[in-house]
Each structure stands twice: as C-alpha cells, then as structure tokens.
Amino acid sequence: MDFDYSTINFEHIRMIAYHCLSLFNVNKFPIRILPFFNQFDNLILIPYEKAVASENISIAELKNKVTHSDDAATLKRANRYFIFYNDNTFEKTTERIRYSIIHELGHIMLNHFQDDRTLLTRSAMSDDEYDKLEIEANFFAAEFLSPKALITPSWSVNEIQSVFRVSEDSATRTHHFISQNLWFQNKIYSEIENGNYDFYSSKKLDILLPPCCTFGQYLSTKGFVFCKNCQSFTRVSKQQNTIFCCICGKEIHEICYCYDHLFTIYDLEVRNLKDYTSIQLNDSGKTLECPRCHATQKEDGEFCDVCGAYLINRCTGHPEVGFTYNDLGTPCKEGKVLGGRSRYCRYCGCKSTFYEQGFLPSYTDDTVKGKKIHQI
Hints:
By secondary structure, this protein is α/β, with parallel strands linked by helices. It contains 15 helices and 9 strands. 37% of the residues are buried.
C-alpha cells in the first residue's frame, strides 16, 4: 500500500526548519555542518571511525548492532543526542554525509524521540510509522540545507547545488518545486526573509582533488594535504616527507588526510575551496592537445610538432626566480611527471614546465577566494 502523504504537515516542518536557521543565526551558505553542531552541548557528532576505535569493534559490527544504518543514526541518552555518522568520503559523497547528519537533526527537532525512544529503527515500530518519521526528517533536511524561501525561479539547478552543496537530485527537486508553484513564490516567511544572507559558490570534492595522470601516481598516493594559502589540495605520495603545494609552491606542514577521511576539512573550508585550471594528460603525463597552438598530438614525442611547445608537465628544477625562458631544466628525482594542474613540483617546490611556459596561470590570477555569487 502506498504511503498517505496527507498525514504529514509539510508546511509545519518547513516552519520548524526555518525557525532553527533563524534561532541559530545561520546566514551563510553552504552551511558548515561541523561548526554548527559545535555550539551545542547536548548534540554530539561521532564519526563511525571514531566510534569503532573507542569501542574496539568493526564498522560492520557498529552498523549491525548499534546504528542499523550505513549513513547515520541518533542514540538518545537522558537529554543528550549522540549522532553517529559515516564520514567515509571513499564510500559517500560529501553531499550525502551532510544530508544524513541534518536528517538526524530533523528527527531531534521534530520530536521523534518521544515515548522514551532512544533509537529509531524500523523493527521497533510499524512500517507506516517508520516511513512517516523518515519522510518528515528528509523534508526537514532539504529545507534546512537549501531553504526554498531563499531561492527564486531564476536560479539554475547548478547554482542551487553550488550554493547549498546538495545533491543534483535534491537541487532538481527544489528547482522544480519553486518553478511550478506560483503560490510559494509569493509566500513570505518572516523567520528567514528578513535576514541578510551570503551565498558562496562551492565545488564537489572529487573536482577539487588533484587528478592522477598515471596509474603509478594513484597507487603511490597516501593522501592529501590542504594548503591554507591558496585553499587547494595537493596529493601526497607514500614515503614523501617534504611537501610543497602544487598550486602556489608553498611548503606545507599540515595534516595528511586519507582519501576516505576528507569530510572534516572539506566541511570546514567548503566556502573557500578552489578549483584551479587543469590540463588533461594521458598516462605518460603528456597532453594530447597543445596548450599553445591547440594542435592534436600523437602519443609519442615530447614536443609539439607545430609550435615546439613541451607537452609533458614535470619539474624543471628551477626555483621561482633565476631561470631563462625555454630552458626547461632537469627534474628532481621524484618530479619527472606532475599532474595537469601543477604549477609547482610537490616534491621540491620548483616550477613546472607547464607553468614556466605560461600554459597554467598563476594561482592569484586563476580564481577568486571566497567568491560570493548572490547576496540578499
């Protein structure tokens, strides 16, 4: 039997979501999830990885015996709520993780933990009751993360995704609802429409990570470091001790994050992270279209047959100053092949051949930090 959606007061849930945004002074988007929760003493976020480490159990055991969910679950103890969530960015998109956490917040704010409930599971209630709670929490999460009252019909699906960092499916549903319901476009929600909001563009995590140009680079990768100077990620190889940012050349002394543990740094920096110009390379680190004259290239050879440009991005061995044009130098031991967005060698900090030839712009000319795309 299909679920009876008339049993849910969606407008009431929307008002609760908007009241939460107003009450806790949320006026910048995308919302940074972790800092938002840090202001509460009774709402505790616990990544699955941290939970299993403290209890000395496996992730599978945690899901089977405690959370009963692959995404997130909330455990109530007295007046405190412990939200366990899967922050594995190898398994889940950051959009999915953000949504799962706010979904759990929805259960709490909508008073689903009544009647001394400590954990919401399908086995503890009827299917209709469980489905109702899930639908309500889903709607809360959608309105909290991307409030429809702040979006006009002129916004595209891509803009909704970028500003609120939600999935394409969620952004499409939001766009469809706003464009098809004229009554909603004229409705006033005083809880949030009187505020001043800043909206920042953002990118998906996989777009922001520097691409591998060889399979060997992929196999040798142990993680990524985040450069606070240019707000970008640099790939780190196993056995690599000294690390230089591949975008701005600055030596980095920050934590190395594994690929499956990037949610925390992504969430904290989501409004600042940059997507820099990159040139597509083949498995040998060579571009098959000349960046200078755009002539199509063959697989073999290192120079463009038409204009003579050097087509492999590698370390030049040249520091920031003291080189002469067209002298491509000698690469350091590890820097024989660099990624398509590398201005600098991540091993020694010297300039790359693509940057030296002017194929890649300086990071200061390439993008604008914290770019606002809307303000109301």
